[in-house]
Amino acid sequence: MPDALHRRIDDKTEDLVALTQELVRIPTVNPPGEAYTDCAEALGRRLAARGFEVGYHRAEGAVADSARFPRTNVVARIEGKRPGPCVHFNGHIDVVPAGLGWSFDPFGGELRDGRIYGRGTCDMKGGLAAAVIAVEALLEAEPDWPGAIEISGTVDEESGGYGGVGYLAERGFFSKPQVDHVIIPEPLNVDRVCLGHRGVWWAEIETLGRTAHGSMPFLGDCAVRHMAAFLARVESELYPRLAAKRTEMPVVPEGARQSTLNLNALHGGLAEGFDGLPSPMVPDSCRLVIDRRFLIEEDLEEVKQEVVGLLEDLKAGRPGFDYRLREVMSFLPTMTEADAPVVRAISAGIEAVLGRPAQPVVSPGTYDQKHVVRIGHLKDCIAYGPGILDLAHQPDEYIVVADMVASAKVMAGATLALLKGAAG
Ligand SMILES: [Zn+2]
């Protein structure tokens, strides 16, 4: 029977390409959250035509939700012949802005040499399309299946997911008894099972000073110099400390198998973006945005304390040093057990379809699994999808059609195993 299912998916290759192109041509750019409703409805219409019950859920009141940019999510569900578990495929429909450097139309969805090019092909409309085709093939090939299957298209993953999976999870969409297993076709490569992700802490640090005429800086107190003093301590003390923290999490790429810190933005003094000549001012404020990624072995409080400790140390020892710290957001690390049912089902599928063992990995950055686990309290969740991780958010992003077909076979086989309890 799996062979028949695989053949059916092979026969749907053109349909898979067309669906991916259709989704990519809807420019769901985030920010600001363009055309979400169009994309949700395109997915909803297709699944409704195949017997799914389709609901649209606008995250009213969520961050950035407005009449002009409604945060429209779609959830589709189909029931099997008899009771059983529910397998849910979740794909985010938002994409990051195209940016510069493209040699293809970023929203053209051009097919060339077995690849589809465009923003969101890899991350992650190609993965979502593969999940749709996998489920459609399964429904045709196996009329007598138990349980339920859900497919959702959700928004705002690229900006934290509060208006998407976070919103739905708050309302029970990612909890038992509605859902038992969740597969998120994010681009982690066709032969990898992604068990979870590292944690993240974003914060803004502001050093404070006192303005004065720039020709007599000794009459003021330069906030940029205070920030430079902090950054010197970050370089000499914090970076070596972070580099020494290694994790047991199988994070890819290898460089992310330690704690990391990105200095995301830095600004002090006169506003940027003016055309005229600067006026001579001593900066009274300097702001730094930091993006700290942490490991399952670390504690969020300890992560914060490392930074606060340096700042407090400077406050105690450096004349005039004062600061403010504003926390922007944080998510804890999450990692599904390696022998969880959904991990076993997808791993078996990879081995059957690709003829090699699945590689368990952990993502360096977070994705919507955090909401499924933290809000939905559903532990049986992974990311598995056909895209090539390194291509996400790049110019000339593409998806390999053969990878989409292979991943659809993996997803279809895994779904069947989970529904029948063979992987449980
Ligand atoms: Zn993504």
> How many β-strands, per DSSP?
16
Question: What low-confidence regions span 5 or more consecutive residues with pLDDT below 50?
Answer: none
Strand content: 15-25%
Shape type: elongated
Secondary-structure class: alpha/beta
Task: Explain what this protein looks like in three dimensions.
With 424 residues, the protein is an alpha/beta fold. It has 2 domains: 2-197 and 333-419, Zn peptidases (Aminopeptidase, 3-Layer(aba) Sandwich); 199-331, 2-Layer Sandwich (Alpha-Beta Plaits), CATH 3.30.70. The chain is built from 10 helices and 16 strands. The strands form 4 sheets. It has a 6-stranded mixed sheet with strand order 1-2-6-3-7-15. It has a 4-stranded antiparallel sheet with strand order 10-11-9-12, covered by helices on one side. Strand 4 and strand 5 form a beta hairpin. Helix 2 (13-24) packs across helix 4 (121-141) and helix 8 crosses helix 10. It is elongated, with a radius of gyration of 24 Å. The chain starts with a helix and ends in a 5-residue tail after the last helix. The structure holds zinc ion. Zinc ion is lined by residues 92, 123-124, 157, 186, 367. The site of zinc ion has 6 residues, from helix 4.
Key words describing this protein structure:
elongated; 424 residues; 6-stranded mixed sheet; alpha/beta; Aminopeptidase; single chain; Alpha-Beta Plaits
Quick rundown:
The chain is an alpha/beta fold and 424 residues long. The protein has ten helices and 16 strands. A hairpin with a 2-residue loop joins strand 4 and strand 5.
